[in-house]
Design goal:
The chain is α/β, with parallel strands linked by helices and about 550 residues long. It has three domains: about 140 residues, Nucleotidyltransferase, domain 5; about 170 residues, ATPase, nucleotide binding domain (Nucleotidyltransferase, domain 5), CATH 3.30.420.40; about 190 residues, Carbamoyltransferase, C-terminal domain (DHBP synthase). It is globular.
Length: about 550
């Protein structure tokens, strides 16, 4: 059974392929098109078919469009409510609905040989739920989905038993935790449906002094849903535009909304556990990328395990839709093997790119040790290894690496990436060493989707990755899963005594994460990076070249 999943609504177009129940490939279109989130200047034209990523998924499996048994499209236009029901619809929504209705023919146009009749619409939040509930390593689980919006809802609560979803609750629009956070993101001068993580970072610099009033307005309900009235955030802090300086009022507003969102999510998770009694909770939807809230759900609810889909945003619905349809067609699907589901290149292909670029390179005996030597000398390394990650987190395949022991390296890394200085950078750490340094969040933490408290004795040793609130968003590295990354960490510890390395995404501000070797060379050429480790090869830049 061959099922292609497609997300092409609102933002983050993506494609994923499930063959005989196994996840073969998954990738966001932005990695191919180089348009971040698949967005174009006109708001309604954000809709974009992932034709490049879909074609790659099929090529990766060696199949043609006519070989597909089904195509799952992670949005059902027939379920969209009326403007009167949601209070949200505008000309853009009318256009999106028309596009979605015509998606079968559009897909047949870009994938010649595809039978449009094979396209199946999957409810948006069901696709999100399947990405988590069927993608998780635990087969039976509770599932909680929260995002900006689907067809007519912003939330789903349910459970998976033997691969089948039972929906227990859903919140109808216009109430939406995701849209509330998007509004705050926009109010603070950031890009909605894109920069919400910046608000979470800013919240750490503030105090929740507006929490009392917000707690009366943003509430969970007894039926497993919630209420989020439209809020004029100017009541609390002046509106910012891009480039404006933020004040303590803005940080306090971010902290207040962040904490209230956390509290509502805790209520929703507890409500769900009361009805299922499950040990494991799985999470998806854009709100599930809020790693601070995820940690509180793990630490403060009865669920013993919390698993978050690494592509929790809309890109993940391509995978979820494919898994859901495969199950509907009688296939036994397998859990997600890891996030490295994107493109990869052989050593020979990488070397050919280097030769074509007429760039000096070398092949060290051990690339992991060569990288550790540069990092120990406080150099910055661009790390390009294996298949690219599915989702927004760099997990040791497309990363910028640095020494965590110098406080000045936080500003340095943010300068390299061209982003705001209040933004934290994250650590990767050997899984067996994590518990002595980090606590409160789950360990292992493979996908960098929780925050952990940094032990007091380690805060001064790894200041680059210790956020202002004393936490870090860690990625634990298992030798069996990531032997090359593990060896690099071991070599770095042997030189420095630190089993931790700074890990942030290999890109610069406003650009998608690096995906192919040419992207890597372009990023290396435009940023003050000391070494590019690409496959078994390294490209060095001298200090004099850096200025």
């Amino acid at each position: 059974m061959k099922v292609l999943g497609i997300n092409a609504i609102y933002h983050d177009p993506a494609a994923a392929l499930v063959v005989d129940g196994k996840i073969v490939a998954a990738a966001e279109e932005e990695r191919f098109s180089r348009r971040k989130h698949g967005k174009r200047p006109v708001p309604w034209s954000a809709w974009e078919l992932p034709e490049l990523s879909a074609a790659w998924c099929l090529a990766e499996a060696g199949i043609s469009p006519e070989d597909l048994d089904a195509v799952a499209y992670s949005f059902d236009p027939a379920l969209m409510g009326t403007p009167e029901e949601s209070g949200l619809f505008d000309d853009g929504d009318v256009m999106r609905k028309m596009y979605a209705e015509k998606a079968p023919q559009f897909l047949a146009d870009v994938l010649p040989g595809l039978d449009p009749a094979k396209v199946r619409f999957v409810k948006h939040h069901v696709a999100h739920a399947a990405s988590a509930g069927l993608g998780a390593p635990t087969a039976d689980n509770s599932v909680l989905v929260l995002d900006g919006r689907g067809e007519a809802h912003s939330h789903l609560a349910g459970r998976y038993v033997d691969g089948r979803l039972e929906i227990l609750a859903g919140q109808a629009l216009p109430h939406s935790i995701g849209l509330l956070y998007e509004d705050l993101t926009d109010h603070l001068g950031f890009l909605r449906s894109s920069d919400e993580f910046k608000v979470m970072a800013m919240a750490s610099y503030g105090k929740p002094r507006f929490l009392g009033e917000l707690s009366e307005r943003i509430v969970a309900t007894e039926d497993g849903g919630f209420r989020t009235p439209k809020i004029d955030f100017s009541e609390y802090a002046p509106r910012l535009t891009k480039g404006d300086d933020w004040t303590s009022d803005h940080a306090d507003l971010a902290a207040s909304v962040q904490q209230r969102v956390e509290e509502v999510l805790l209520d929703l998770a507890r409500w769900l556990h009361e009805r299922t009694g499950d040990r494991t909770l799985t999470l998806a939807g854009g709100v599930a990328l809020n790693c601070v809230a995820n940690t509180r759900i793990f630490a403060e609810t009865p669920f013993e395990q919390v698993w978050v889909q690494p592509a929790a945003g809309d890109s993940g619905t391509a995978l979820g839709g494919a898994l859901h349809v495969a199950r509907d067609l009688g296939e036994r699907t397998e859990p997600m093997p890891g996030a490295d589901l994107g493109r990869g290149w052989s050593d020979e292909e990488i070397e050919q790119v280097l030769r074509t670029a007429a760039i000096e390179y070398e092949r060290p005996r051990d690339v992991a040790d060569a990288v550790a030597e540069v990092l120990a000398g406080n150099g910055i390394v661009a790390w390009f290894q294996g298949r690219s990650e599915y989702g927004p987190r760099a997990l040791g395949h497309r990363s910028l690496l640095a020494h965590p022991g110098y406080e000045a390296n936080l500003e340095r890394m943010n300068d390299v990436k061209g982003r705001e200085q209040f933004r934290p950078v994250a650590p990767m750490v050997l899984a067996e060493r994590a518990a002595e340094i980090f606590s409160r969040g789950p360990i292992p933490s493979r996908y960098m989707l929780f925050v952990h408290d940094v032990a007091q004795e380690w805060k001064e040793r790894i200041p680059t990755v210790t956020h202002v609130d004393g936490t870090a968003r860690i990625q634990t590295v298992d030798r069996a899963d990531e032997p090359l990354v593990a060896r690099m960490l071991e070599c770095f510890e042997r030189r420095t005594g630190l089993p931790v390395v700074v890990n942030t995404s290999l890109n610069t501000a406003g650009r998608p994460m690096v995906d192919d070797p040419r992207d890597a060379l372009e990023c290396f050429g435009s940023a003050p990076v000391d070494l590019l480790a690409i496959g078994p090869f390294v490209v060095r830049r001298t200090r004099s070249t850096l200025g």
